[in-house]
Amino acid sequence: MFKPKSPSIFLLIVLIANSLCAQTSFTIVSKNEKVGVFYDKSDAKVVEIAAKMLVDDISKITKKYIEINGDVHKYSILAGTVGQSSLIGRLVDDEKITITDIEGKWETYKIEVVNKPLPGIEKALVIVGSDRRATAYGLLEVSRMMDVSPWEWWADVTPEVKEEVSISVTPKTYGSPSVKYRGIFLNDEDWGLQRWAALNYEPETGDIGPKTYAKVFELLLRLRANTIWPAMHKSTKAFYFYPENKVVADNYAIVVGSSHAEPMLSNINAEWDHETMGEYRYDTNSRSIKKLFKKRAKETENYEGIYTVGMRGEHDSPMIVGEDDTESQVELLEQVITDQREILEKYSKKDEERPQVFVPYKEVLHYYQSGLNLPEDVMLMWTDDNYGYIRQLSNFREQKRSGGAGVYYHTSYWGRPHDYLWLNSTNPVLMWEEMSKAYEFQSKDLWILNCGDIKPHEYNIELFLDMAWDMTKFEKNTDVKQHKNNWATREFGEKTAKDITGVMLKYDELAFQRRPEFMAWSQVEPVTKAKETELTQFHYGDEVNQRIEAYQTLITAVDSINTKVPAYRKDAFYQLVYYPVVTAASMNHKWLYAYKNKFVSSQGRNSALYYGEKSFLAYNRIVSETNYYNNVLQGGKWNHIMNMSPRYLPVFSRPSIAVAFPKNTNDLGLALESYEMELNDKAINSYADVLPVFNAYTKNKYYVDVYLKDEGTLKWQAKPKENWIKISKTSGELNADQPEERLWVTIDWDKVPKGENKKEAPLGHDYQLIPPSFKVNSAIDFISGDKTYTVGVSVFNPKLEALKGYKGFVEDKGFVSIKAENYTRKKDGLEAKWETFEGIGYSGKVAVALPRTAKPQNWISDIVKNSPALEYDFYTFNFGEVDVNIQAIPTHAFFEGSGVKCAVSIDDAKPVIVDFQTFGRSEEWKQNVLKNATVKTAKQIVNKAGKHTLKIWMVDPGVMIDQVLIDLGGWKKSYAFPKETKL
């Protein structure tokens, strides 16, 4: 121990000058030199651990042995903790360094190059930490500078071998962190982490034990995290069952906490024995429960811990109380907290900080909202709704509480309406938006991410913890994209980083529209079988086929990138990119091809079996990739870590397949876009023989499927009757290898005749009733053998003076479709304005009202006067009452009493308030989180055909508008809004 001397004025001047200087190069290994690493053995155990990790990293890069606390080296790395290291004390006394900028701060460290710090050392890289974790972070910061990934072990990101290693160092202070306690929750570990540990990595324990936790804690140190909520399912023994676990945690300086269902660091699932301890209910058995609490408080009194206060029932269920009413529940919960705090006080040392946290999760939030009296020094830990949307945050009064606030957030979840335990499918920009919102409302004391089995959540774990470490680097939503690109560059090099970033952004976008685990349209609690998809197969270009093609593009892209990834990073690429992308694509293909199989079977297409086989191939791809992950990758290192069917739910099964009955005819089959029925040439008046109207202003294209009705071979021809009708292919042959083909019909707008412009009259509310003066009709003949099938083509091509040079939106087939970010104009409000977030939403961008601290405008007069507004110019050919459908991101109100509202109006109409808020676990909320969208409708009047303006006003700040669809009566059922109808 030492007491530092006061720094001289001269030293301060020198230090300030040094801080302004350019980067200094420091050689770690060269042909003739290599560093020695030194720390004081009296320093914390975690410093020793981090030093050994750094030395191991250097050795893996250079293949050279690096000494720790050995002989004096010309170039050395000196590390130590303020107040714990005599080595650092000597440097301070000799005025080689100063510690005034980090002393007494939380987890703050500095790294600088010092010339001749000690006898025999010419140049040293000095790492000083304000506390034990800070010193460890500093040592591992050097690993980062050498481009060693935090995922070096957990994702096999093998360091590049080099003969020489130098780093550039700018005198810099790191920390204090944005969030005080930062960590992960190992949860729902039954199908991955626990089996891997028990059967592969730690068979001597047969469980997640101290050896496994040491590797988890090593990862946390590399990611500058400091907190763990240990695994707690019944498949895993309680963390404190193994005495070594708490010792290992302390050695790695990891703070142990516990979830909302584990009060006082007690794992109720594993530790509560009904036979010997009685019923787990506080109103009748508090003595036994307090006995467990006391045991754990005494057991952990010498270790860092965060104690969850309050109580729930066993394994994520409400607590049992005698009187089933809110008042009694609140009263009992208050007594529980009082008793817990008395126990903690008894086992606390003088002036010791023993953080306590209250987690208002699920029904506990209702108790808190109902007036529960929570002591001021207890931390409020807010939660998301399990699907990424934070239910409530601290209001302005709660932000002043001495206990502070935190957030418990999910990227993995078991429960209704459906689990997502397999792949990482939480949109990173959504996570940024929610956590930055939490940070803005002063939830800065504890962030915990429920990341399931760790794998394959690697990227989102790192993003979450990087934000918690330094939120100033994530002030803009585009910082997430930059972070992802930096991550890809570090892991796989600049050559492939841009392509990998593009693939992952598209992966995130598709998963946001529908997670892979939700593709069967089934639900849990109770578990249901697969249901019909909401994706349309015959409107708007076929949503099913569009999603198939989008995922096939991703598979093609990762296959291409894989050929460019260096051999030593192939396994890392497989884990971090290839497996998630390919299996997500295959899960989608499995179900999408199954849905297509059933649809084409109902139309009597011979291709039903073809699509069924495609579905089976996709299922088999998931099987083979998962087998490779577990049994081949890294020689079986990860065997049992990846399970392709957690909880064995219907979505993970191989779908059943339909087969079309043979038609005993070799006739050509035709199916047209916008018709569920196939073309029936035997019907007197077929309802499926005319393509939707082509609109000169939206430049549509529509498909025609040609297909076999039976086995055999069939030749066909397509002959447009006018030269302005274009078709993607005019002849072909159908056979067993290609039982159907999709053709695209477009219009050559330079050749099609203009419709006569007698007057710009309203067209009637039925959008199909277009006046002949505006319409041009023709057809395409499809010929096969001696049969001809005629498909009608209608073109809407008027000469409207009002639309010359027009740049707004226009009606098409009875609707106007708008992406929220493509406003014509925007008007700033008194306190707020509309801005754009990228990387989220169905369109890839959303309009959001900011700042979040702006005053809500709930009165119509205030909305018109004070609120920011988005304006969209649009033109209609019909008029009457319309539905303005607003799609938003399904966020919740910031805090009790605030809202999630906007207002809409057309032209000069009075604004109508639209409310997106949901409550509890309602059916509406379930559908919203399954779809990551909420759609609300406002009635408005379009009083005439012609130009109009839609206005969207802010009512509550923070609302994120994704898309808008003005329905004049023509919108058909679809999962997403149709393509934007913009000139």
From TrEMBL:
Q: Which residues form the Gylcosyl hydrolase 115 C-terminal domain?
A: 808-980
Q: Where are the transmembrane segments?
A: none
Signal peptide span = 1-22
Source organism: Wenyingzhuangia marina
The answer to keyword Disulfide bond applying to this record is no
**Alphabetical list of PANTHER family matching this protein:** GYLCOSYL HYDROLASE 115 C-TERMINAL DOMAIN-CONTAINING PROTEIN, PTHR37842
**Which named protein is this?**
Glycosyl hydrolase family 115
Q: Which Pfam families match?
A: GH115_C (PF17829), Glyco_hydro_115 (PF15979)
Under InterPro entries, the record lists: GH115 (IPR031924), GH115_C (IPR041437), GH115_sf (IPR042301), Hex-like_dom2 (IPR029018)
User: In terms of domain of life, where is this protein from?
Assistant: Bacteria
Keyword Hydrolase in annotation: yes
Output one GO MF annotation. hydrolase activity
UniProt entry keywords in alphabetical sequence:
Hydrolase, Signal
Q: Which Gene3D superfamilies match?
A: 1.20.58.2150, 2.60.120.1620, Chitobiase/beta-hexosaminidase domain 2-like, Glycosyl hydrolase family 115
Give GO BP annotations, semicolon-separated: carbohydrate metabolic process
